[in-house]
Amino acid sequence: MKKVAVIGYGGQGAWHCTQVLKSDVTELVGIYDIREERRAAAKDNGIFVYESNEAIFADKNVDIVVVATPNDVHEDLVVNALKSGHNVICEKPVALSVEEFDRMVEAQNESGKKLSVHQNRRWDVDFLATKSVIESGEIGEVLRVESRIHGSRGIPSDWRCHKEPGGGMILDWGVHLIDQMLQLITEKIVTVNCNTTHYTNEEVDDGFRLELGFQSGKTAYVEVGTYNFIAMPRFYMQCKEGSLHLSDWQQKAKVAKLTRWIEKDVTPVQNAAGITKTMAPRDHLTLDSYEIERPISDVHNFYRNFCAAIDGECEQLIKNCEVRRVLGVMEAAFKSAQDKQTLKVDI
Ligand code: NAD
Questions:
Q1: Structural contact between residues 237 and 243, judged by C-beta atoms closer than 8 angstroms
Q2: 228-260, pLDDT tens digit by residue?
Q3: Do the Cβ atoms of 192 and 342 come closer than 8 Å?
């Protein structure tokens, strides 16, 4: 069992503590938070509280330090934890720029320890269902994937609504959805276009719309909204031989597989003020429609994998080169939104 200490006992730090306690590969040795009330909350929950972050770094008993603080303080904590001889799990987004992440990776390489980023949404069932349809090839090669997450409550009124600590939705939710997208389409990205929304917040984006162009012509769309009172589908995908529609993470994916392209006698349908053959829906003679069972997923495999990677038994599932690519896309998204231009990129 790997001994884990958590820095930052807020929403996500407390979540890690719960998972680390439940896990079959980790045990919780303690936490530290700069806020007195959070340290008191941890004590109330029976968790050992260190005197400082430095006290965690000095504890040779600790195998893994989890960093779960606001985004702007990740770098210092990650680098210090690595330099003091600990493996590190850092919350997403690991850094505010590629440059910052490169310094973390340099510290990792010098330390001989391991750094992983908590991209836990790779275990989301909706994402796994979409991925399984791509991998099975049952509706052919991907043409376009659209991934959206829509809420209606604006940005939480904490550090997330300010620029300096790394707030805004590109950094908060975008990092998850972009990470997932680059697992679905693994080709080189050649164009990035992004625009941000500021319906509820001037300082940082409360949503964004990001279009990615890939080398072979495949495209992807990633959208995060916090001012959507009716949500659009979580995933929508067009492939060469069918389409996928997944309304939200509670639901099964619906797949429509084309079995025959040609229909001899399409009956025109009446819609609105006219008739159309082009938009006439298909029937079972040319389309096979079915649902995909929700895949089984266990987010504890994140910890299992990292602990096994520390012991040299396997590779890390969340690879630092993948994390770096996602940060590259986010940097390009910010630039595209600021310059109001589509960027040609090589990511
Ligand atoms: P939060 O504000 O609830 O908690 C952050 C805690 O860190 C606070 O209690 C704060 O006092 C403490 N802190 C700040 N600076 C510190 C320092 N130098 N040393 C020790 N403690 C310090 O925020 P949160 O929602 O828990 O988010 C924390 C991190 O977790 C962010 O990076 C966020 O993006 C990430 N997060 C990830 C997920 C996920 O699903 N992977 C979900 C939520 C948040």
A1: yes
A2: 999 999 999 999 999 999 999 889 999 999 999
A3: yes
Residue 328 belongs to what H/E stretch? helix 320-339
- Cβ 78 vs Cβ 90: under 8 Å: yes
Q: Does residue 310 lie in a domain region?
A: no
Position 268 scores a pLDDT of 87
Q: What is the total count of domains within the chain?
A: 2
Please give the pLDDT value at position 267: 84
- For a ligand 1 pocket test, name from 33, 117, 175 the mutation site with the most ligand atoms within 8 angstroms of its C-beta: 33
Q: Which two tokens stand for residue 167?
A: 């707030």
Whole-angstrom distance, CA of residue 33 vs CA of residue 263:
65
- What's the domain range around 112? 2-118
Give residue ranges with CB within 6 A of ligand 1: 7-13, 32-35, 38, 53, 68-71, 73, 91-92, 118, 120, 158-159, 172
Tell me what the pLDDT averaged over the chain comes to.
97
Whole-number pLDDT of residue 58: 98
Residues 130 and 207 in one domain: yes
